[in-house]
Amino acid sequence: MKKMPMRVLGKTGQRISILGFGTAPAGTRLNVKEAVSLYEEALNSGVNYFDTAPDFAGYGQAQKQLGHLLKTRRKEVFLVTKCFEPDGEAALKLLKSNLKELQTDYADLVFVHSVGADKMNPKVVFGRQGCYSALMKAKADGLTRFVGLSGHN
Question: Does the predicted model carry a pTM greater than 0.85?
Answer without folding.
Answer: yes
